[in-house]
Amino acid sequence: MGLKTTFFRGLSKLNKVILPNYTKKGLDLQKASKFQLAIIGWKAWVTKHASTNPNQKLLQN
Questions:
Q1: DSSP state of 54
Q2: What DSSP string runs through 12-49?
Q3: Tens-place pLDDT, residues 9-36
Q4: Among the four residues 2, 11, 45, 46, which has the most C-beta atoms within 10 Å?
Q5: pLDDT: which is higher, 1 or 19
Q6: What angle do CA 8, 12, 16 make, to 5 degrees?
């Protein structure tokens, strides 16, 4: 696991603690404010970068 993946995993855990979970609150995306949509986008972006590729070791060698 690389430094980038480790960083984004830590950031993901921090986001989970600090930022609200709109899924549990039952937020309707059509009624969400721009700020709420920005938080959802940020969390999705961090999650995308925190996930690891199963073939990552093969490509690095």
A1: T
A2: HHHHHHHS--HHHHT--GGG--HHHHHHHHHHHHHHHH
A3: 899 899 999 999 998 899 998 999 999 9
A4: 46
A5: 19
A6: 170
pLDDT attached to residue 8: 87
Instruction: Please tell me whether the overall predicted TM-score, pTM, comes out greater than 0.70 for this model.
Output: yes
> Do 15 and 7 contact (CB within 8 A), yes or no?
no
**Residues whose CB falls within 8 Å of the CB of residue 5, separated by 6 or more in sequence, listed in order:** 49, 50, 52
* Alpha-carbon gap, residue 36 to 39, rounded angstroms: 5
Distances (CA, A) of 24 to 14, 21, 27, 42, 50: 18, 6, 8, 17, 22
Question: Could you tell me the residue ranges of all domains in the chain?
Answer: 3-60
